[in-house]
Amino acid sequence: MIRMFKNLTHIFKNMGAKYVFYRVRHEIEKRSGLLKRRHPNNLMFGGRIEVADWIKSDGTKREIAKESINHSKSYSSQLKEKADRILSGEIQFFNAEWMKLGRDNKWIHL
Q: Distance between CA atoms of 29 and 37, rounded to whole angstroms?
């Protein structure tokens, strides 16, 4: 009994409280069957559906969705400015500093 207590304190000391509590919780879930209920081995899916059947059943939903989508494209001015700077040969580096490398640089193939 003393040896077991020594081993437990040794594990607690080396691995930390977070790990020990995780393992205790995991063992409780495993032995109670809660772990198997959360993560089943043999998950049953429904039967296969053919493409023609899917199109027939879902056709009206897709038509309604197409009509309700708003296609207006709006580009921000910041995006336009960044694109112009990149096309002129400037590159934004990691510290958000823009540096002019020129269009003839080996790194840039425009």
A: 10
Please measure the distance between the N-terminal and C-terminal CA atoms of the chain and give it in whole angstroms.
74
Cα–Cα distance, 5 to 7 (Å, whole number): 5
- Separation between Cα atoms, residue 20 and residue 13, nearest integer Å: 10
Tokens, residue 87: 């096309």
Question: To 10 degrees, the CA torsion angle through 8, 9, 14, 19?
Answer: 60
Instruction: Tell me the C-alpha distance between 100 and 89, whole Å.
Output: 6
Task: Find out whether 62 and 77 touch, Cβ atoms under 8 Å.
Answer: no
Higher pLDDT, 13 or 70: 13
Dihedral pair phi/psi, residue 40, rounded to 5°: -70, 150
Mean pLDDT in residue range 53-82: 71
Which neighbouring-strand residues pair with 90?
A: 100
17's enclosing H/E stretch is helix 17-32
